[in-house]
Amino acid sequence: MCWAGGESGRGRRRTPRWGRNTRAPARAIPPVLVKCLVWDLDNTLWRGTLSEDETIDPFPTIREVVAGLDARGILQSVCSRNDHDPAWARLQALGMTEWFVVPEIGWGRKSDGVRRIAERLGFATSTIAFIDDQPAERAEVAHHLPDVRCYRAEDAATLLDRPEFSPTSVTVDARRRRTMYRAGVRRTDEQARFTGSHDDFLRSLEMVMHIGRATEDELSRVEELTLRTSQMNATGVHYPDTALRALVDDACHEVLVTTLTDRFGPHGAVGVLLLRKHPRAWHLKLLATSCRVVAFGAGTIILNWLADQAARARVHLLADFRATDRNRMMEIAYRFAGFDERPCACRGAAGEPGSDDGDVQVLHLVAERRPRSETVRLIAPDLVVTADGPG
Length: 391
Prior knowledge:
Layout: E1 36-39, H1 62-71, E2 75-81, H2 84-93, E3 104-106, H3 110-121, E4 128-132, H4 135-144, E5 149-152, H5 172-175, H6 177-193, H7 198-204, E6 207-213, H8 219-228, H9 241-248, E7 253-262, E8 265-277, E9 281-289, H10 298-313, E10 316-322, H11 328-337, H12 345-349, E11 360-365, E12 376-379, E13 385-386, E14 389-390
Parallel strand pairs: 1-2, 1-4, 2-3, 4-5, 6-12, 9-10
Antiparallel strand pairs: 6-7, 7-8, 8-9, 10-11, 13-14
Helix pairs in contact: 3-4, 10-11
């Protein structure tokens, strides 16, 4: 699907004609939010062609648009047909380089450059947008990357008003997302130079993981994580703010947020758990972790901690899982942690014999004590409550 300012009709839905016996249309599904906008330079970000005028300036509204998208937590990059050094030097002279991550400036195909940007950021191409003044360049990207949304250069001034560039809330993590991704690039470069084992590299990062009960201020971060995460989301369910607040106030539920820091800086909120506690079993309704911490084993660390807590409480664990074409790694994390489909009396005792949604499996684990991670220092609450109190 290529959205190109109205010039492409592919992927559009026809407007239905509603007769007397038809049902009212379903509520419109909000568009997938753009995570990264990739800018062309010549006659898109700035007026003119750099090879013909080394002093060219951005179009009048471009700085406002770039700054506005950045403030909303939308990353931005560059994919331009230019010699890299003079193009980057001009962006530096304009004071704009800090806004752009993992740029692709050169003479190859733009679809290849956009694909590399998505891969380096760990984003699905459906969350990438591309803006260019040339119809041929947009068509080339659309052909090779049909999920990338394409926009004409003259559409730049309208981007801040479009729903796909308008998250419902802007969290602390969103406002510093560019800084966090720049730290991620430095982290990746450090790993490429590291000569020891993978575990030795992880230990060298001096990582600290915090798991804590969600506060009022953190609920928007939880909602954002359930909305933006697809690769490491066990069910794909999006929990809106109102539903999260109801669960926080319910004594039978735990809403837990995971954050991670290391010597390069904060990763921000990287995980969310929604847990329903029954006397004989705890039901993990949702586990979602950021794809950018997959290599650090965040999902495994969280599941091991939860299994250890359940073992101490002498309860089994149940976990909802809906298989998709993107969350295979989450399924592997569950299986590696020991979850399976075996029948158990705890399912009925927990009032969870199955799901109303036939696509959702309810996995099962007989919890046993687990050792803590050797590569991450974990700070987490005690979920075990006895007659004498916690623990």
